[in-house]
Amino acid sequence: MPTRPSPTLPPGVTERRATWDDLDAVAALLAEASRARIGAVTVRREDLRLRWLGLASLEAVVLLENESCPPKLLAYSAEDVLEDPHSGTIELHVDGQVHPAHTGRGAATYLLDRAAATAHDAAVDRGRSEATLRTTLVDGDAGARAFFEHRGFACVRYLLDLRLDLHAHPPAPIWPGRVDVRPFDPSSDVERVWQVHQAAFADVPTSLPLTVDDFRASRLDGARGIDPALSLLAEENGEVVGLALCRAGAPGAPEDGWIRDLGVVPAHRRRGVGMALLRATFGLFRAQELTGVALEVDDVTLDGAVALYRRAGMRIVRRTDVLERSLPVVTA
Q1: Domains of the chain: total
Q2: β 90-98/130-138 pair status
């Protein structure tokens, strides 16, 4: 019979809820951990602020402190409880970090047990017999990976940030057969491009189907929408067979071009259309005096589409592993 997790605070440690006044201190903790891990800071204060804004409330953010052992703030955790709208599964994403000066003292174990207890209670409240705990590891943190694997977590997918410098002219695209390229025209192409987008990503395990209205809202509207003038469609005999939906300005890098989506419909893959679209996009970005190319890949296998981007000269600049563990729930 499974039992409810029972978190126990390490000796001398106190817990409290965060406030917005704690934002700078938590950002500094994350910066110290990142420097200790890879020698650079990868999470900005603004990234953390947006993360907190996406939570139901700051009640989900927990700080661990120790008055007698500097630095005072020794660990941080944010818990985000979600219910899958299709399966009803309770999912809890926990985002935590222990200050590098305080590792190995029980803080991480406490925060993980606390998250498991939160997930357990949320599942019981909704009459579920199981919950899923999820967390992410950045920059290939081997120590953290061993910690989570020892506690039953397994990696389910990888989020990769890739980049290419555009200091030199990229190779010209080589289009196969009768394939040609043209810019995306939002006045007439939206529905056709939506259909191609759905076909191109239908076999991606992490991709969700979009209605045409969802596609328009997520790709064309708002500050993070694509720029049609920087987005290309590959056509053969009047049929759109591939797309590259792009804009100027990548997250954290306004000088880069951002490839939001690059896809080829299944019947036209392995012909070189994807590589030609990439090279045409690189050339378009450089003509607009953008200094680099950036994109993100959500990959289950850690190869798949990544092989194409590497052949095009792109490199992985950040890797995030998504880890999960199923949690049996005690029900009355």
Answers
A1: 2
A2: parallel
Q: What is the pLDDT of residues 17-76, one digit of tens each?
A: 999 999 999 999 999 998 888 888 878 888 899 889 989 899 999 999 998 877 889 999
Give CA–CA dist 45/4, Å, rounded.
Answer: 35
Is position 229 within any domain?
yes
Of the two residues 278 and 139, the one the predictor is more confident about is: 278
Strands in the chain per DSSP E: 14-17, 61-65, 73-83, 90-98, 130-138, 154-165, 179-183, 232-236, 239-250, 253-264, 292-299, 315-328
The CATH code of the domain that includes 146 is 3.40.630.30
Q: Is the pLDDT of residue 1 over 50?
A: no
CA dist list (Å): 269 to 196, 263, 301, 303, 308: 13, 9, 19, 16, 12
Please check whether residues 38 and 178 belong to one and the same domain: no
Chosen domain end from 125, 151, 177: 151
Give the SS3 label for residue 138: strand
Give the pTM.
0.76
Q: What is the pLDDT of residue 96?
A: 92
Q: Which domain holds residue 92?
A: 14-151
For 114-168, what is each residue's pLDDT tens digit?
Answer: 999 999 999 888 888 889 999 998 876 788 889 999 999 998 888 889 999 999 8
First to last CA, the chain: 12
Query: Is residue 41 domain-shared with residue 119, that is, in the same domain?
Result: yes
| 8 in a structural domain | no
Q: Is residue 102 part of a domain?
A: yes
Dihedral Cα 53, 54, 58, 62, nearest 10 deg:
-120
Q: Are residues 58 and 194 located together in one domain of the fold?
A: no
Question: 3-state DSSP: the chain helix, strand, coil percent, rounded to 5?
Answer: 35, 30, 35
Is 7 inside any structural domain?
A: no
Helix axes 23-38, 45-53, angle to 10 degrees: 120
For residue 31, the 8-state DSSP code is H
The mean pLDDT of 298-317, rounded to a whole number, is: 82
Distance, in Å, from the CA atom of 8 to the CA atom of 107, rounded to the nearest integer, reads: 9
Widest pairwise Cα distance in the chain: 73
For residues 175 and 84, state if they share a domain: no
